[in-house]
Amino acid sequence: MSQSLIRAISARKNQFSLGFYYRCMNTRLFHHQDQIISPNCFNFSSLGFSSIARHGSHQNSYRFCGNLITNGFASVSNLSSDESNVDNGDAPCEKFLDKKPKVVYKKPIDFTKIDANLLPTVMIMGRPNVGKSALYNRLIRRREALVYNTPDDHVTRDIREGIAKLADLRFNVLDSAGIETEVSSGTILGRTTAMTANVLARTQFAVLIIDVRAGLHPLDLEVGKWLRKHAPQIKPIVVMNKSESIGSLDEVASEALGLGFGEPIAISAETGLGMTTLYEVLRPLLEDYMVERLNDICSQDDVPSDENLSDETDESKLPLQLAIVGKPNVGKSTLLNALLEEERVLVGPEAGLTRDAVRVQFEFQGRIVYLVDTAGWLERTERDKGPASLSIMQSRKSLMRAHVIALVLDAEEIIKARCSMTHSEVVIARRAVEEGRGLVVIVNKMDRLRGKENSEMYKKIREAVPIEIQTVIPQITGIPVVFISALEGRGRMEVMKEVTDTYKRWCSRLSTGRLNRWLRKVMSRHSWKDTAAQPKIKFFTQVKARPPTFVAFVSGKTQLLESDIRFLTRSLKEDFDLGGTPIRIIQRVVPRAPSSSTGGGGNGNRSSGRVVQRTSSDKRTVSA
């Protein structure tokens, strides 16, 4: 009896370390080495616990921090002397639960799970007409940037930003204007070069493109010198574009070595040639940057490590798409810079500076907003060819993709023309209504109407413009009108407030019970010409939002007229505060139930209470 008791006690002591290991495996002190690894860690196999590491279903190699193992074995040695403490196996691990381990990120990094705000930034650079926009479209997998062969002119003038998707790599990519160093600072090219230098200071990597068909151009050497001067911390990756039709690239590659940025890569942005090689060069550079960036963030006590990975988007916080449209030179780009509070896009007195539809992301009161600055060409004519024609088409696409349209008017033009909106501006507003978008009208350049001589004109504009806009666009009632000065930054918060309020109304939903109670009240106050011909709406419900769409179920042959639909639409906007938002009402006819046939004696439609079963035979139907 005593020998069996001694064997049981010794076996229990030998198995203590195994139980301690399994209990601690369920705590938050340990992480899988493929995801998050604690520093100064080692395997159990180094301590001679290889059998424990391979025991049971725990076949993955887990690592323990050195200080935790030391403290853990100290606790084990103390508890082994007392048999009662061995029974309470959770005690050794509870003392470590309050300590938050320091997480360390290591390669490989899954870029698809990294938040977009933490991704590295790569700028595409080079002299004009070497294929920068074509490579940008290839990386983002969409045709967003304008691509046109103009050797004597710049197509791209602003900085475009997007998320590149190169296999499993994700990074922010910037499409810049062509760099020409020998230009004066006051010209358009000088301003674009200065703006590129400002954005380059916040960039981590750069891709320098040269045209392989033209060889190493003298302007390429100037761009290389410009890069060393303005961004000495960046070593660009040299790529030789348009190499799909060139047989031997050795001569051009040897010339490209003269830039001093390393071995060039042969690619074709048009066909996708060489994208694998570009991926192999970019991945180690981006991984090193992300490992350092994530570890720096995790080293801060106030930033949890779980926030580094992107979560699912909440429907209540969906990004707002805002398109700024209007005629040329009304201040659209100036308004975008005022909203961002930085010189993000090119501005100037020249009309038609913006060619690309520039899309910029920023945050306003906890909501992500995408601003789209469109080109000023609104009506396509036969004279508009090349980049101008492409800009018009891109502006129309941006209008269709947006949630809210901000139509910018010029206060000086209103005074000269003595009308609030020209024909082209009315076309834009009506198209926005037809597409079901929210509409906000912004009257810019109100700073030009200062002074005593313009005080009366200032008051007349503020009073007459909302009334005239409502007359010209009767499809939407309650269109918000904001008077601002984008050059001075006045009215910025008022614009965003009206835009967000319009977006909330555009996404609003009304319950069916509330709508039907409203319907009974509104139908009683409507004056019908003929009470007998009054349509009977049995049911009224909202089927979708963005924009609000309703369905009226009408019984009988009489349907709602256009005047009745306009009355219901106006009543909805007034009673539920849906101004500035298009409302759609669809009517559906509810068929009447077929009348039951009456039998002889008037008792044919009465039920006798018993169930009649019908059985089929090969000759006739027999009632049982």
Automatic annotation (TrEMBL):
Identify the keywords attached in UniProt to this record, alphabetized. Answer: GTP-binding, Nucleotide-binding, Repeat, Ribosome biogenesis
Region annotated Disordered sits at 589-624
Task: Tell whether Protease is among the UniProt keywords.
Answer: no
Q: Which HAMAP family match?
A: GTPase_Der
InterPro entries assigned: GTP-bd (IPR006073), GTPase_Der (IPR016484), Guanylate_kin-like_dom (IPR008144), KH_dom-like (IPR032859), KH_dom-like_a/b (IPR015946), P-loop_NTPase (IPR027417), Small_GTP-bd (IPR005225)
Query: Which CDD domains does its entry note?
Result: EngA1, EngA2
Q: Which GO terms describe its biological process?
A: ribosome biogenesis
Q: What's the protein name?
A: GTPase Der
Q: List the GO molecular function terms.
A: GTP binding
Q: Which NCBIfam families match?
A: GTPase_EngA (TIGR03594), small_GTP (TIGR00231)
One Pfam family matching this protein: KH_dom-like
**Similarity section:** Belongs to the TRAFAC class TrmE-Era-EngA-EngB-Septin-like GTPase superfamily. EngA (Der) GTPase family.
- Taxonomic source organism: Capsella rubella
Residue stretches making up the Guanylate kinase-like domain: 119-325
